[in-house]
């Protein structure tokens, strides 16, 4: 998303824009999932943490490697990750009582979500490469 300058680094404005897009995407995903699951879907914050982490991590991968459908893929993956996290939190009734327990729940959940994201992004990259050859 951010255009690199002559020095090879993204300008501050581009970084700030990317951060703002990531934060806004995570917040919108949380609001939409809250509307679907009710107001108490993320009492412990794990769902919000997954949404925020997804938005931040996927920014460079989705927007950097995909051309045509980058934003759709980015938003779709953040929403998919947020919904998946909300379902897992709800089904398993996760309620961490401390920072260590929170991380213990968050890391495996995001590892699974990250693997799914990786597979989806690789598939989309292959499709983009095939379309560009045509």
Automatic annotation (TrEMBL):
Provide the alphabetized UniProt keywords.
Membrane, Transmembrane, Transmembrane helix
Give the transmembrane ranges: 16-38, 44-62, 74-93, 99-121
- Tell me the domain of life: Archaea
Q: What is this protein called?
A: Uncharacterized protein
Source species of the chain: Thermococcus cleftensis (strain DSM 27260 / KACC 17922 / CL1)
């Amino acid at each position: 998303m951010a255009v690199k300058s002559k020095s090879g680094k993204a300008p501050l404005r581009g970084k700030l824009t990317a951060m703002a897009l990531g934060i806004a995407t995570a917040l919108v995903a949380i609001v939409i999932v809250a509307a679907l699951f009710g107001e108490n879907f993320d009492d412990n914050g794990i769902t919000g943490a997954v949404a925020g982490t997804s938005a931040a991590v996927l920014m460079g991968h989705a927007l950097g490697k995909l051309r045509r459908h980058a934003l759709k893929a980015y938003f779709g993956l953040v929403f998919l990750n947020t919904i998946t996290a909300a379902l897992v939190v709800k089904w398993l009734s996760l309620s961490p009582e401390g920072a260590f327990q929170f991380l213990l729940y968050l890391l495996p959940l995001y590892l699974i979500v990250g693997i799914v994201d990786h597979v989806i992004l690789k598939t989309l990259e292959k499709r983009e490469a095939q379309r560009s050859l045509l």
